[in-house]
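In the design runs reported in the main text, the only information available to the sequence generator was the tokenized backbone. The following block is the verbatim input for one such run; it is reproduced so that readers can re-run the procedure and compare outputs position by position.
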């Protein structure tokens, strides 16, 4: 399920976001990644991502997407949770010249890969390679890792 908590400062594209289209993409991407359990997604503000990032990772800054995997014992029912900053996603969409919906899809796929145990901060490029393969399969634009390493 996708929950949208609009930021206090209005985003011009927010009214055009389709929860049902994002949910359909999330389910397709979840299956492509190989996650069995459901995934809950919170689309929220930079302030909330900063709070979550500080609480769970000890980093006192906003970020674009955070992943919260569940213990293996319940992963078949609930794979985990994702939190995405709408404000950061909107800035990144403008920076890379695509829609907010496309940016959210990029961030959702990236988060799903983290839920599946991938970690680009510690691997030797395996997550980037898998993300590129899945982007192609899902007919998506450039992914998060790919554009960061350019």
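Verbatim output:
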């Amino acid at each position: 399920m996708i929950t949208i908590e609009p930021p206090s400062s209005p985003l011009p594209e927010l009214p055009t976001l389709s929860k049902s289209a994002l949910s359909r993409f999330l389910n397709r991407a979840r299956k492509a990644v190989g996650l069995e359990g459901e995934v809950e997604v919170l689309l929220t503000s930079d302030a909330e991502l900063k709070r979550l990032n500080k609480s769970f990772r000890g980093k006192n800054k906003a970020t674009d997407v955070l992943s919260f995997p569940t213990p293996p014992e319940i992963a078949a029912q609930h794979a985990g949770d994702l939190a995405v900053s709408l404000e950061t996603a909107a800035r990144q969409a403008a920076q890379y010249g695509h829609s907010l919906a496309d940016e959210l899809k990029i961030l959702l796929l990236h988060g799903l890969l983290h839920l599946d145990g991938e970690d680009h901060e510690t691997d030797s490029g395996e997550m980037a390679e898998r993300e590129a393969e899945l982007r192609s399969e899902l007919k998506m634009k450039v992914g998060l890792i790919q554009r960061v390493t350019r």
